[in-house]
């Protein structure tokens, strides 16, 4: 059996103040915003920063910053991954069949990658 290839496309983190965190990524790391989505009324917001980070504003969150929301994982075999995940014990979440809760509670979002992009991403040596 040939297993699919995959990479983590983004990590979604809940934070009490999105703007404060976006400022850090912009001013300290020089990373821009890839996408932004506001809820009805403008808040809470979600911001995707270049470099695989999604910030989800959760003003009611109390505790240490950076509560993990989910991992977004790009795959080259969407249907095969969903079938193997179900057989493995992952449960689909109400958000859709590609939103899974793994035993133990970790949430993952499975995303179909364009042809060749998974191999290209995996070929990058981040230590080079």
Automatic annotation (TrEMBL):
It comes from Bradyrhizobium manausense. It comes from the Bacteria. It holds the Pfam family Glyoxalase_6. InterPro entries: Glyas_Bleomycin-R_OHBP_Dase (IPR029068), Glyoxalase_6 (IPR041581), VOC_core (IPR037523). This is Glyoxalase. PROSITE patterns: VOC. SUPFAM superfamilies: Glyoxalase/Bleomycin resistance protein/Dihydroxybiphenyl dioxygenase. Residues 7-128 form the VOC domain.
């Amino acid at each position: 059996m040939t297993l699919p290839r995959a990479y983590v496309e983004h990590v979604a983190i809940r934070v009490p103040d999105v703007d404060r965190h976006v400022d850090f990524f912009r001013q300290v790391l020089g990373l821009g915003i890839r996408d932004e989505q506001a809820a009805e009324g403008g808040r809470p917001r979600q911001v995707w920063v270049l470099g695989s980070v999604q910030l989800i504003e959760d003003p009611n969150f109390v505790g240490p910053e950076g509560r993990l929301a989910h991992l977004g994982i790009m795959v080259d075999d969407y249907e095969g991954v969903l079938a193997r995940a179900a057989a493995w014990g992952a449960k689909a979440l109400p958000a859709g069949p590609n939103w899974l809760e793994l035993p133990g509670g970790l949430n993952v979002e499975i995303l179909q990658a364009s042809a060749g992009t998974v191999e290209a991403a995996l070929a990058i040596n981040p230590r080079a």
